[in-house]
Design brief:
Elements (H helix, E strand, L loop, with lengths): L29 H16 L31 H5 L25 H14 L11 H15 L9 H7 L5 H9 L5 H4 L4 H7 L3 E3 L5 E3 L6 H10 L13 H14 L5 H13 L13 H15 L6 H18 L8 H9 L2 H4 L11 H17 L15 H38 L6 H5 L29 H9 L13 H19 L8 H10 L2 H14 L4 H12 L1
Antiparallel strand pairs: 1-2
Length: 559
């Protein structure tokens, strides 16, 4: 196998974490952006002449001309690359108390302009000539898909975040890579179904499988790039969404791009299937993708040399690392803020941000805690033929391990605090909206009485061993507030300071879901009595209809 230089693909500009970035000289001003818009309008209003295609563009010879706005609103590299964008691009976190920034472009304008700009730079054997109608249709299906109510993290701003400084193939791939979230979005939308008609079918058990049918060449290319077979049931947790997103992209673009360009896009989207361990022979997901790419190249006579397939696989690995770069951010508060905004995507009840029950929040936290407990940081980042280098992958992995460790314990603290509330609710009449016990979430218009008015967070008790990083995050808060929870956690911080790591782990074994009154008693009994008294009396100030029962519980544990 011909190997490319250790540590870097041809022309790839890498940051300290092995993720390709645009150089500072590629920043453009508002006037440049305006010129790009005028350029687009001019292209759309005049017949385009057939021109000699430019030389082949390597992975990072070109960068987005629209990747950043004025210097006064420039994002820090750490923020841009870790999946978290400021309000200027649609903040993932809440914008409470922040004045919105007037943007140069709408999301749809950015999708249209950047898609046109990227496709113009494709080194494609076809003469890429895209109409306004095509661009509009593609931009709208991306925009509508990623603006669904279920998208609290994987929204439109996510594709702009991970495509910052990407090469044209990566950028187009990024725009499509999360279009389908089958279970989270409740299946295919009518627009998605129109494009993907006849590709998959849903069984009575809600499983999704590939149809056994004759497909066009472009669709077969996607099936082969993913290593799937006709009639196969697709794994909803590993490949279903990415496959359908890739198929949608290729079906949209198949009359515009050559099969070789479509193969590169399909490979990029396949690479974004996350958290895959090496197989029994030690081959990584990138190794397996390279093998499938070679088979597709031979089967469909794409005419690509081994060097080009290596470069395409490295490009795909880079996009995959961009997609999960949030895990290795040095800013733990940002990492937790992004993690928190994933909760409503997999927990429908939390999308009703002003009214969800204590039990719903308990279940959501248990699911996320279990995910982090079993997540292996070694399976987050990938490389191929030394790109990125082993050292850079190791550095990213180590930071991811630290973030996962902190996030897991943070989740456990939150889970214990909400489980104690769940126990008090069960002992006093049953599950109820969380606002009954904790008060309303603050809003820009009003701040009502809340549990933090009655709970004082003290320094950790003498002799209590705890993680100071986690305690600081609980006390001081994540980077931003979510729509369903405040950013700091006074109740969790209060309990953690009293119980420490040892008490936390012991109590978590009794944090049941669903919870019975017997379960509730067992949990409250292992908590410090003074904590039960304090929390019960504080909740009595908020939950007026249960105040007398809560006071009885406080009296019981005070004795």
């Amino acid at each position: 196998m011909r190997k490319l230089p250790e540590g870097q693909a041809p022309g790839v500009a890498l940051d300290d974490d092995g993720i390709s970035v645009a150089s500072e000289t590629s920043n453009v001003s508002h006037s440049s952006l305006a010129n790009q818009r005028r350029k687009f309008v001019k292209k759309a209003s005049t017949k385009r002449m057939v021109q000699q295609r430019p030389r082949r563009t390597s992975v990072s010879d070109t960068v987005s001309k629209l990747s950043r706005v004025s210097a006064s609103r420039r994002e820090s590299v750490s923020t841009r690359l870790f999946g978290f964008v400021s309000n200027s691009l649609g903040s993932i976190g809440s914008s409470h108390g922040k004045k919105p920034v007037k943007e140069e472009y709408t999301y749809l304008q950015r999708l249209v302009i950047e898609m046109r700009d990227s496709l113009d730079q494709f080194d494609d054997e076809n003469d890429v000539d895209v109409t306004d109608d095509q661009l509009e249709n593609w931009a709208i299906i991306i925009y509508e898909s990623m603006s669904a109510p279920s998208r609290t993290f994987h929204g439109v701003q996510h594709v702009f975040a991970i495509s910052e400084g990407a090469d044209p193939i990566q950028k187009v791939s990024a725009f499509f890579h999360d279009v389908i979230y089958y279970s989270i979005d409740g299946g295919l939308s009518p627009a998605q179904e129109k494009v993907l008609h006849g590709l998959v079918k849903e069984g009575e058990d809600k499983s999704v499988s590939l149809c056994e049918a004759e497909f066009d060449e472009a669709t077969r290319l996607v099936i082969d790039m993913f290593g799937f077979s006709l009639g196969q049931t697709l794994n909803p947790f590993s490949g279903l969404n990415e496959f359908l997103s890739a198929a949608l992209a290729i079906r949209c673009l198949k009359d515009t791009l050559s099969l070789s360009s479509l193969a590169k896009i399909a490979a990029c989207i396949e690479a974004t299937i996350p958290f895959r361990a090496p197989d029994e022979d030690g081959r990584t997901c990138s190794d397996l993708l390279f093998d499938r790419f070679k088979n597709v190249n031979e089967k469909m006579k794409l005419g690509m040399g081994e060097g080009e397939i290596i470069e395409s696989t490295q490009r795909a690995a880079d996009l995959a690392n961009r997609d999960v770069a949030n895990f290795s951010t040095p800013e733990r508060a940002v990492f937790l803020s992004n993690t928190w905004n994933l909760l409503p995507e997999s927990n429908i009840s939390l999308r009703h941000t002003r009214c969800f029950r204590i039990g719903d929040f308990t279940l959501a936290l248990k699911k996320m805690s279990n995910f982090f407990s079993f997540l292996n940081a070694e399976n987050i980042y990938t490389s191929f033929e030394g790109v990125p280098s082993a050292k850079k992958v190791s550095d990213m992995t180590q930071r991811a391990k630290e973030n996962i460790e902190v996030a897991t314990k943070y989740m456990h603290c939150k889970l214990l605090s909400i489980s104690v509330l769940y126990a008090l609710a069960e002992k006093t009449g049953g599950d109820a909206p969380i606002a009954l016990f904790l008060g309303d979430l603050p809003s820009p218009k009003s701040i009502s009485p809340a549990i933090e008015d009655y709970i004082t967070i003290s320094p950790p008790a003498r002799g209590v061993q705890l993680d100071k990083r986690v305690f600081a995050l609980l006390r001081d808060g994540r980077e931003g507030e979510s729509e369903f929870d405040i950013k700091n956690s006074p109740l969790a911080a209060y309990l953690y300071a009293l119980m420490g790591d040892e008490g936390l782990q012991k109590a978590l074994t009794l944090a049941a879901y669903p919870m019975t009154t017997e379960d509730a008693k067992k949990l409250l009994d292992v908590c410090p009595p003074e904590a039960v008294v304090k929390i019960a009396t504080s909740c009595a100030e908020i939950a007026l209809t249960r105040a007398s029962q809560l006071q009885k519980i406080a009296a019981l544990y005070s004795s």
